[in-house]
Amino acid sequence: MSGDEALIHDALVELWAHDGWSDPTYAAVKARFGEEALIDLVVTASYYALLANVMNVARTAAPAGPRLAPQD
Question: For the chain, what is the total number of helices (H) and then of strands (E)?
Fold first, then answer.
């Protein structure tokens, strides 16, 4: 992963594990991407997590067609 990808990954893992960010994580994301992008990141990731939860509870079937291969 690039540095930006690692920062986003680690920030989202922390968000979902702790229902928020530590001050250092918040500061790092804000310093790298800005406050508007910080909010966009949380909203977008949370929206997709919400959709995944709803689809899982509703037992939505996966679409037919090729599937992505697992990454090492």
Answer: 3, 0
